[in-house]
Amino acid sequence: MLAYDFGGKHPMNPERLHLTARLARDCGLLDLDGVTVAAPPVASDDELATVHSPDYIRAVRHVSSNPGTSDAARGLGTEDTPAFAGMHEASARLAGGSLDAAEAIIRGSAVRAVNFGGGMHHAARSRASGFCIYNDAAASVQRLLDRGARRVLYIDVDAHHGDGTQSIFWDEPRVMTVSLHETGMSLFPGTGFAAETGGPSAEGYAVNVALPTVAGDAAMLRAFHAVVPQLAGAFAPEVIVSQHGCDSHREDPLTNLRVSVDAQHALMVGVRELADRLCEGRWIATGGGGYALASVVPRSWSLLVAVAAGAPVGPATPVPPAWREYVLERHGVEAPRLMGDGADIWWRSWEVGYDPNDDLDRTVMATRKALFPLHGLDPWFD
């Protein structure tokens, strides 16, 4: 999976996956009973074509074989998504991991699955964008539908709007896409506002919460719990697919949300609890954005593995000394001593009242007003 490498000083450094896998193993998470590590296959063109156009797949193959070329109209060979030799195979392997996860859920050989190398949520049906070539999360959702799932809930808590996944399922009422992200007024891709609610056949099935630019932990958690459990309950999904980009962190160089690893962990637990309550536990979790490659990404996504595995590893758990020594030797930086940041993640429940003078409350209420009535919910009281 480390072959997904744009090279040079590109922010999407595959080292983040290497460090995550090593930390997860050093924490004992990959050796737990009930945990299986599976090598992801390269997704076939037919599998990719369930969510991408054949012309686009051919264009990716062409640029992959001719990395000196570009196809800017399809977002290939750009500054954000540079071409590199083997790009098709590397991208298709990320997708293969999420497709494998979906197959395991369908077969019943797993109840939960994690692909922290996935979460390429900006890739649209016919265009690469935002470091994303093939949309593995969308492919896994479509695989679930094609194998008989009647309703799939997609939850995206990356700092950036999950625009590609939303666009692929824009007019599909069997899929509800929910994205909580930094407002498009201050961050790429500039979309994801409350008024984006879905296509003519699926109005109310695209859900967006455009968080204030520097929202922080309490705002992120308040927004999640004021919107997601209510709509999830009304939708009644059979499986949840989630995207856990950790670029919302206060140390991330590309975003501004200022969220702690502790709050990211709380969101993971929130998604797991929804899966347990609504889907008999069925849950596929992916990675996504995250560019503080040694200090944040490995801790956040190792905690994601721990939450999915039901392991007693949390924000207060010490980081294994061997991993910290490895990071110091490999990168010359001191890694954090705890899996979390020691943050206070208290948040104010929506039930205590709506404050019209608060930026966060106004954006949450905009989403509730736009979506709740379409699902028989009261935006003021539910």
UniProtKB/TrEMBL annotation:
It comes from the Bacteria. GO terms for molecular function: histone deacetylase activity. Keywords: Acetoin catabolism. GO terms for biological process: acetoin catabolic process; epigenetic regulation of gene expression. Pathway: Ketone degradation; acetoin degradation. Residues 10-306 form the Histone deacetylase domain. PANTHER family: HISTONE DEACETYLASE HDAC1, HISTONE DEACETYLASE HDAC1-RELATED. Belongs to the histone deacetylase family. This is Acetoin utilization protein AcuC. The lineage of its organism: Bacteria, Bacillati, Actinomycetota, Actinomycetes, Micrococcales.
